[in-house]
Amino acid sequence: MWNCMGISNCLSIVCVLLTVWTEVSQSSGYFELQLIAVQNANGELSDGDCCDGERNTQDLRCSSDECDTYFRVCLKEYQTDVTTTGLCIYGSGSTNVIGGNSFQFKSAKNNQNRNNDGGKIVIPFQFAWPVSYTLIVEAWDWDNGTHSSEDLLIERSVRKERINPGDDRQTIQYNGLTASFEYSIRVRCDENYYGSKCNKLCRPRNDWHGHYVCDQFGNRGCMEGWMGTYCTTAICKQGCNLLQGVCSAPGECTCTYGWQGPFCDNCLPYPGCVHGTCVKPWQCTCEKNWGGLLCEKDLNYCGTNKPCKNGGTCMNTEPDEYNCACPDGYSGKNCEIAEHACVSNPCANGGTCHEVPSGFECHCPAGWAGPTCAKDTDECASNPCAQGGTCIDMENGFECLCLPQWAGKTCQIDVNECMGKPCLNAYSCKNLIGGYHCACFRGWAGQNCDISQNSCASGPCRNGGRCHTLLDSFMCECPHGYTGTTCELKDHCKTNPCEGPSHQQSLVVPSVLIPVIDSCTVAVATNGTQEGVWHISSNVCGPHGRCISQPAGNFTCSCEPGFTGTYCHENINDCVPPPCKNGGTCIDGISSFKCFCPDGWEGTLCDMDVNECSRNPCKNGGRCVNLLNHFYCQCQDNWKGKTCHSRESQCDSSTCSNGGTCFDHGDTFRCTCLSGWVGSTCNTAKNSTCDSNPCENGGTCVGGGDAYTCICKDGWEGPTCAHNANDCNPQPCYNGGVCVDGVNWFRCECAPGFAGPDCRINIDECQSSPCAYGSTCVDEINSFLCVCPLGRAGPHCQECEYTAACRYSGLQFPHGSRWEEECNTCQCVNGIVRCSKVRCGRRPCLLQRGGAGPDSSAPCPRGQECVEHQFLTCFAKPCHQWGVCSTPDPPPPLHTQCEPNSGYLDNSCARITLIFNRDKVPQGTTVENICSELRYLPIAQTLAKDCTLLILCDLSYSNSDAVEVAMVSDYPTSIQEAASAIVGALSKRHNSTVMLAVVEVKVETQVMPQSVDHLVPVLCVVFSVLWIFCIVVCVWWTRKRKKERERESAAEDSTVNNQLEPLRVSLPQHKDNRGKDIQHECKKLMNPPDRTCDGAEGDEEEDGEEEELRRGGMELDKFSTQKCSLAGETFFFVLFFLFTNCRSL
């Protein structure tokens, strides 16, 4: 056990070792050698021998086995006579085996300053570099012990030179008798070490001990605001009196005791000193006409205060005392009482009444004017509210009522109106200076895109077609014989029906295939028109372009004025070149621009100076002088203030704008402005917030004071225009097309079998006429179907075969045809209808009262109508527009324990939890919509080909953003594969916007028991049988040998003579040993105690003479008997070991 003393000693030793390791690891620099190339053409050593192998007897060349080359480097003090032995004083190093006879390091050769660990040797040192050195570079052949290490030298290079620390390398080429090699060397100082000897330490720091950085020579350089040898002295605020002020951080000025002021140049007078000054702290030197200990007594009260009014004569009597000699008609201590005018106190709001020959005169306080001080001074006279704001005059101040698009004290900050989402039916909302712009959908207009335009007002339908107004376009119901978007095309299949042997066939194919009108228009089936189709135009060209169809499914976009680009997605920048003058900010519009002028300028191009004197701001006869964004009043008759409105002070609350502080300097005033404002009255914004160009991606910055607004280009959004607007939301690509989002544009990468700008065009694979023998080709998705006549079969109807048609739901389907039956797929196979077995349930549909959902085109099958259902579970409100399709028969009852949120699991039941991102779920989504999407997946039809598949959904009880799904299958062994297939289908891209919102999927199934491995028990049985067989063979062999010995003994009994007598003396000992050996071997082979050895009994019953006669035969058989016993014993233990392991398994 360790005692306390032992632990203490160990800790001391560890501390010492750590200290020594720390000291050693802190070197001041390192010597670096980088190998570049090595050339040893013959693969020889320095003594002429081959590195490996022998020389060829014919050409005396070394064998093909090359040298295992590695390098040693010895760095020592400068020596005039170099000795290659002895200590490497400065250090040494070596490499591993890095090559054969010849090799090179390409990176080191091409770029010597590049780090390359191969062939690099670094020797650190912790002393002042002596500049002079001796370098010994040796190339050796590594051998695994077949030669002496001293005999394996390939080449040695000795160099004595001088080198100074630096980043540049010295390249050295050494050509020896045996080999040549090229290498580079340099000496570099460690971090924070400088100088020609790496002995100058300079470590940058910024703490209490110093604030400095180090230059390339290791000299300290103080950081900004610091000075001194170690940069520990802060540089105080400019103007600070260093005798009376100190600072602990740059820019400060902390006054010492007895001093005050921003620069500590004002002394503190004696406490209580009223009208006194000081030169040194705690003095109270009275001003003129003041006396007393605290200079509180007025020695010339009359001269200082002039208390006598109305011409009264003032006389100083005592300190702070006076008498007024009033003229006739006035009385009172200050002659303030007149006989008539001021008796009624006509001056309101604190005004002072003075008798004048004409009556009285009121001296009004700040903020009031008029003959009786009853008129509030109009601080709104200077129109401080910008951008159309309404100024409300208040007592000694004002308030601005800004328009909705402006904010701030003076209405100079633009409000982002798009935050309130004012645009109703629009692609996007764009914030402008003082307003916003809505990019309306087709068919909508108005400031907020809330006015529906009648697309049929211009009568676009031709040839007698009826026009129907849609959400963003129109639809023409064409008369018989016409087709096209505006009924401009003749339908020759109706006006000139086919004649001859090839009649027009009416083929019933329930699968929905979208016929192509052109590259920009497709026809979609509907029950709302007489023809049963809607002609829908593609929106790939966006709201500012018109799609023009081109051959081979291509298209081009014809852009509206002001837009350009492949998809008409780029607004032409009308601000290039900049049209706004005098620092105006240009805001690009649609084929227009708007200049946001700085203060003081106006006009379309900000080229007109605002005349601030046009509002006559100067009062009381003052003359107005117009300045840039300002005016100046030249006051008359001792009037003061910015607008000559006061006799008391130059300052009031409206003198300095934007929170500036006014200081009265007697005959003028000075405003101290807040950050971001300049000018004599703080009325001009620095626009400093836009100096750093905060708006990205071509956004325009408009700033005012400390705030700014970014006007983003189309396709960008966010406070700094840093986010690319998602043009793929909502999903514009149909039929599984993948939307590629660009900057204000998108592109659809169509799935196989589809084309067009939005992948709504199903490519007609029947154009190549693949069907033969008069068969009808039916175009499918990325394939085709040949409807063969009677007697024909095969993919192209090229085979002769009799097949029977199928009748289903009152319709006849030819052999091989496929169709959809709700959420299942059916196929006719030689008169037999085979359908998948998905339980579809009642299909969700949109009620006639309108609304938008995730699948606004979800109609009911023919013969059914959309009815209300009171038990639909809403997932994303509003859901009132959803109903279910009516069914003639009630749905069959469900008998299953496998339900959502039930926690039940078995071999035929699986639970799937779908977790959604609420922000991506379309409005108006129900749980039934999600369940219907799962049932209509193609993988569900594949899984239900041979077994029934039931899918149930409900809102999760534990997570409001999740939907619980229960799956039931007839085949218990396939439920896990079915759940995995459904999850795999959800992970792939698809056209449904509901499934795109899935962010996580959880699957729960019952764990199946592992299959039993029968190999180990079979092997155990086999080995057991072999073990028993071996025992039987050994017993049989022993009995056989015994019988042979008995027969030999009987044959030789008659020939015994007296010559055997000498042998009988030693027979008993051999007899006993032999009996014991036989018994021992039998016991090992025959373990049961009831078994006895026949050979032993026979030997014990024989007399001495018979034993002596048989001795010769037994000795001959002894070897074979022992060999059998030993083999049986060994085999027994092996089988016993295997049997034991079998039992454990």
From TrEMBL:
Disulfide bonds: C189-C198, C202-C214, C222-C231, C326-C335, C364-C373, C402-C411, C440-C449, C478-C487, C559-C568, C597-C606, C635-C644, C673-C682, C712-C721, C750-C759, C788-C797
Region (Disordered): 1084-1112
Molecular function as annotated in GO: calcium ion binding; Notch binding
Keyword Ubl conjugation (UniProt): yes
Name of the protein this chain belongs to: Delta-like protein
Pfam family, one: DSL
Signal peptide: 1-26
Domain annotation DSL: ranges: 187-231
First-listed, main subcellular location of the protein, grouped into a coarse class: membrane
CDD domains membership: EGF_CA
Entry superkingdom: Eukaryota
Compartments, record wording: Membrane
Keyword check for Signal: yes
Matches recorded under PANTHER family: CRUMBS FAMILY MEMBER (PTHR24049)
Origin species: Oncorhynchus tshawytscha
GO biological process: cell development; central nervous system development; exocrine pancreas development; hepaticobiliary system development; Notch signaling pathway; thyroid gland development
Coiled-coil stretches: none
A GO CC term assigned to this protein in UniProt: membrane
TM region positions: 1015-1037
Composition bias type Acidic residues, residue spans: 1096-1107
Record key words, sorted: Developmental protein, Differentiation, Disulfide bond, EGF-like domain, Glycoprotein, Membrane, Notch signaling pathway, Repeat, Signal, Transmembrane, Transmembrane helix, Ubl conjugation
Membrane topology summary: Single-pass type I membrane protein
Function text: Putative Notch ligand involved in the mediation of Notch signaling.
Domain EGF-like: residue ranges: 298-336, 338-374, 376-412, 414-450, 452-488, 531-569, 571-607, 609-645, 647-683, 686-722, 724-760, 762-798
